[in-house]
Write a structure and sequence with these properties.
The structure is a single chain. With 478 residues, the chain is α/β, with parallel strands linked by helices. It is 47% helix and 14% strand. Helix 9 runs parallel beside helix 10 (224-234). It has 2 domains: 59-319, Type I PLP-dependent aspartate aminotransferase-like (Major domain) (Aspartate Aminotransferase, domain 2); 322-466, Aspartate Aminotransferase, domain 1, CATH 3.90.1150.10. Bound molecules: D-serine (DSN). Residues 44, 107, 216 line the site of D-serine.
Length: 478
């Protein structure tokens, strides 16, 4: 039994929880065991530090704090003010932003705050002005109709979903698709890369109010200087959703034209992906949009989560340390080593490689859908997620791609040699898996055949690969 502070803290917490609902304590312990055992290649996941995790489990959860620092709708928010101000200060310093808003509960929420701030700033609407000074719940039905009419069909131009864009950039399954008249820019079919001339052409034709850059499955850098020039040429507000690559911006891997903060009017992010913080969101902007952004709660958001803002402050303080830049560099080195290993073994990668934290494998060359490949890999102890590839014939559900990313394994300490070994394991599973058939003998996009002995052997090799890199080595629950 270890007696270090982390082990004592988590063991004590579980003991207290177990006394009330043992099944919850068991599930928390089981989650740690599962995470320790799996080769996690989900590009959007990571492992937050014990300090970040512990900052979330406390009485800050009991406090209501609608409003912003120093201007709350509730009394007694002085300590919430402290942690929210700290989170914002660390974010401003880390990213070189004039203003930071640490309240969004997720990336979707951060984007909604940004969209609303842009609409409020840009659209002349008497109803919107009324909405700024009253509680949303107080708006009359007539106000809502007027608002909808006055906002009209504002336009948004963002990256298409199959090219790697995100649902919240104006697509129908998300409210942004109902708020905006959306058009997408794709990627060059030959290279898989963003064609900036085509983006400029689409912007000229469509004249969007908002040009959005950012992605969840594009394995390359984006030139934000060029995107800003395109936005300026049509009078659009330029917004960047850096949720996936915020850690690479924080760690100064993406600098100059590839750092969104100096180029965008407004930047949104999550805090739990490559940034390695708690699950949540954040908005950065210049002084022009700051007031509107600060209206995020109650305009768009439910009450702030002060315990999560405390954890954001801790994680952002960690990201300001010099070793975070080394971590960010290793994320990209590992992604490139993984991509090289896959390419040498004959895989087809969208864009032919990567210069960020993720790799997108087109699995159609193996005769598989993304769904079949995802499940076969999971059977073999390798956790990934299926993802559409550009012009995907299998759509967004079955897909033809597997997205893999390196932030989590890099946190554990795996390096280039282990990435090559991981490429070998993925290659083995994908070459040994065949598409299955449905009950009627027809080809299935979901069923697959993989010899369980192969899955077991790969699973064992994946576990062996992780053994020298224990997850949360400072936490001993026994
Ligand atoms: N769900 C996140 C991802 O996996 O990319 C983005 O919302």
């Amino acid at each position: 039994m270890s007696h270090n502070a982390e082990s004592t803290a988590f063991r004590s917490a579980l003991e207290v929880i177990r006394a009330v609902e043992p099944r919850v304590a068991d599930a928390i312990g089981a989650e740690l065991a599962d995470q320790r055992e799996s080769l996690k290649l989900i590009a959007s996941e990571n492992y937050a530090s014990p300090a970040t995790l512990l900052a979330m489990g406390n009485w800050f959860s009991d406090k209501y704090a609608e409003g912003t620092v120093g201007r709350r709708f509730y009394a007694g928010c002085q300590n919430v003010d402290t942690v929210e101000a700290l989170a914002a200060e660390h974010a401003r310093e880390l990213f070189g932003a004039a203003h930071a808003y640490a309240q969004p509960h997720s990336g979707i929420d951060a984007n909604l705050v940004a969209f609303w701030a842009i609409l409020a700033d840009r659209v002349e609407s008497p109803a919107l002005k009324r909405a700024q000074v009253r509680q949303v719940n107080d708006l009359t039905e007539a106000d809502w109709f007027a608002l909808r009419r006055e906002l009209g069909d504002q336009r948004m131009l963002g990256m298409s979903l199959d090219a790697g864009g995100h649902l919240t950039h104006g697509f129908r399954p998300n409210i942004s698709g109902k708020m905006f008249d959306q058009r997408s820019y794709g990627t060059d079919p030959a290279t898989g890369l963003i064609d900036y001339d085509r983006v400029a052409e689409a912007a000229r034709e469509f004249k969007p109010l908002i040009l959005v850059a950012g992605y969840s499955a594009y394995p390359r850098k984006v030139n934000f200087r060029i995107m800003r020039e395109i936005a300026d040429s049509v009078g659009a507000t330029f917004m960047v959703d850096m949720a996936h690559f915020a850690g690479l911006v924080a760690g100064k891997v993406f600098t100059g034209d590839f750092d969104p903060v100096p180029h965008a009017h407004i930047v949104t992010t999550t805090t739990h992906k490559s940034l390695r913080g708690p699950r949540g969101g954040m908005v950065l902007c210049g002084p022009e949009l700051a007031d509107q952004v600060d209206r995020g709660c109650p305009m768009v958001l439910g009450g702030p989560l002060p315990h999560v803002m405390a954890a954001k402050a801790v994680a952002l303080a960690e990201a300001r340390r010099p070793d975070f830049a080394d971590y960010a560099r290793r994320i990209v080195d590992n992604a490139q080593a993984l991509a090289d290993g896959l390419l040498r073994r004959g895989a087809t990668l969208v864009t032919g490689g990567t210069d960020n934290h993720l790799v997108l494998i087109d699995v159609s060359g193996y005769g598989l859908t993304g769904r079949q490949a995802e499940q076969a890999l999971l059977d073999s102890g390798i956790v990934t997620n299926r993802n559409a590839v550009p012009q995907d014939p299998n759509g967004a559900w079955y897909t033809s791609g597997i997205r893999i990313g390196t932030p989590a394994l890099t946190t554990r300490g795996l390096g280039a040699a282990e990435m090559d070994a991981t490429a070998e394991l993925i290659h083995t599973v994908l070459t040994q898996t065949t598409a299955g058939t449905g009950p009627d003998g027809a080809p299935s996009k979901a069923k697959y055949v993989l010899d369980p002995a192969v899955a077991e052997q790969v699973g064992k090799q994946a576990a062996d690969l992780l053994t020298p890199f224990p997850l949360y080595p400072e936490v001993d629950l026994t």
